[in-house]
């Protein structure tokens, strides 16, 4: 499968990438790892006229502590998240979720910024960052703004990112010894989640339970009010809107959300220290 | 556009369309046909090569993205049939293939895995090869091959009893590894 022809430009800095986005307008698309974009281009579901490659920008590849947060460059690859000793210690949910993305070859190319920008509701990292209460830093000719991930997604594959904005950073809290777990249900190797549940510090993020990643707010509230794990997990599918498709019916997804939430909360309770 | 990619240690350059995939650059521009195209959808891993030392699926990388990088294909691993790379030798010794279609990608994924994790457990090998599909072998002997190539005894690591009368493969002893293996205690 061959994509429709396009012009390729390799940006040498984030500022240059932004200038190129301004110059080419909505005909241009950013290319990082390309593991969401190139498959849809090969299927000709997308046909951007200009690809602006930001995949090699070292200024977008870092993981560092900043106060009570960890700042992660948007171009950081899944493999780097997975292998980060800093994250393993300070925010272990994120590398655990990153480890379940695709397969090693995919994780060598895919980036956290690309995964968040793509906005596939079945993706792992958006649900994990949502459970973490992370924020997304975007840069454009108008300057820099920070958007909490709770306000980032507007629908399937849709975000509040403007066409001339580049995601430059993802910020997540240092969760230290807080209990956490990532439960992902798949039926084939290297597949997307049928449903996945991320839990950290009493917050619950759901993947593939609606058009965007969702918080299981009813279950979280029940937990905060002293409900048992069983009681809280039974509420995990409230206010969700899962689809029925080839891998699973909506009702089965609701069942999975409850079961996986119970498992994740149980694991997180055992892991808290 | 012009790309310059070091492939198996050789500098290569070509004028290509930006949409040319790396796998087509390797096969059609350079004529290196060991790298197979299987699913063409980033699933099967048959097109796996090393890009700057890391395993990638070359059906999902543009040649343009590899401009200025180093690529290793199966052709670049061994100098000849009598001097196989340890991973290729282990695949032969452990019968880690049947039809052979997945093998170039499987070997390259295994080389990438061992560079990140030189002494993997059986579980780590199975996880590490998650991105490579084989429809013949049931993976058993592929896993043994990767363990043997890591210098470990596949019988020991997989908890398989050695077959009676067959010399145990010494650690890293790819050349002395036993032939066809059905696994399980005998």
From TrEMBL, chain A:
Record-linked InterPro entries: CO_DH_flav_C, CO_DH_flav_C_dom_sf, Diverse_Substr_Oxidored, FAD-bd_PCMH, FAD-bd_PCMH-like_sf, FAD-bd_PCMH_sub1, FAD-bd_PCMH_sub2, Mopterin_DH_FAD-bd
Keyword Oxidoreductase: yes
Signal peptide region: none
Domain of life where this protein originates: Bacteria
Keyword Magnesium found: no
Residue ranges occupied by any FAD-binding PCMH-type domain in the UniProt entry: 1-177
A Pfam family reported for this protein in Swiss-Prot or TrEMBL: FAD_binding_5
Any one GO MF annotation of this record: oxidoreductase activity
Keyword field: FAD, Flavoprotein, Oxidoreductase
Name of the protein described by the UniProt record: Carbon-monoxide dehydrogenase medium subunit
């Amino acid at each position: 499968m061959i994509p429709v022809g396009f012009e390729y430009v390799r940006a040498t800095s984030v500022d240059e990438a932004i200038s190129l986005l301004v110059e080419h307008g909505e005909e241009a698309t950013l290319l990082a790892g390309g593991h969401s974009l190139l498959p849809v281009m090969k299927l000709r579901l997308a046909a951007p006229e200009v690809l602006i490659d930001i995949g090699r920008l070292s200024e977008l590849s870092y993981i560092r502590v900043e106060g009570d947060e960890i700042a992660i460059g948007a171009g950081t690859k899944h493999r780097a998240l997975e292998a980060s000793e800093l994250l393993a210690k300070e925010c272990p949910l994120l590398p655990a979720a990153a480890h379940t993305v695709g397969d090693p070859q995919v994780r060598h190319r895919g980036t956290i910024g690309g995964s968040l920008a793509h906005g596939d509701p079945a993706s792992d990292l958006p649900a994990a960052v949502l459970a973490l209460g992370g924020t997304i830093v975007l840069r454009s000719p108008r300057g820099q703004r920070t958007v909490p991930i709770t306000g980032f997604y507007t629908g399937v594959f849709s975000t509040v990112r403007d066409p001339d904005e580049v995601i430059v950073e993802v910020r997540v809290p240092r969760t230290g010894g807080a209990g956490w777990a990532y439960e992902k249900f798949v039926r084939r190797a290297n597949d997307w989640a049928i449903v996945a549940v991320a839990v950290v510090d009493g917050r619950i993020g759901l993947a593939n339970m609606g058009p965007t990643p969702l918080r299981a707010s009813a279950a979280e509230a029940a937990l905060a009010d002293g409900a048992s794990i069983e009681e809280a997990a039974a509420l995990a599918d409230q206010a969700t809107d899962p689809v029925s498709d080839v891998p699973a019916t909506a009702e089965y997804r609701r069942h999975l959300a409850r079961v996986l939430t119970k498992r994740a909360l149980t694991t997180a309770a055992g892991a808290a220290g | 556009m012009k790309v310059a990619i070091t492939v198996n240690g050789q500098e290569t350059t070509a004028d290509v369309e930006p949409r040319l995939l790396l796998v087509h650059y390797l096969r059609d521009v350079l004529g290196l046909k060991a790298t197979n195209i299987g699913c063409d959808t980033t699933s099967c891993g048959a097109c796996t090569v090393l890009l700057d030392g890391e395993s990638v699926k070359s059906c999902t990388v543009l040649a343009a993205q590899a401009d200025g990088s180093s690529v290793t294909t199966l052709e670049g691993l061994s100098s000849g049939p009598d001097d196989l790379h340890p991973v290729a030798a282990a695949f032969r010794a452990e019968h880690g293939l049947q039809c052979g279609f997945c093998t170039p990608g499987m070997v390259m994924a295994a080389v990438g895995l061992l560079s990140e994790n030189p002494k993997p457990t059986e579980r780590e090998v199975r996880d590490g090869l998650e991105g490579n599909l084989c429809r013949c072998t049931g993976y058993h002997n592929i896993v043994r091959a990767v363990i043997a190539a890591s210098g470990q005894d596949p019988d020991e690591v997989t908890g398989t009893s050695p077959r009676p009368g067959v010399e145990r493969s010494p650690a890293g002893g790819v050349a002395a590894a036993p032939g066809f293996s059905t696994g399980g205690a005998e």
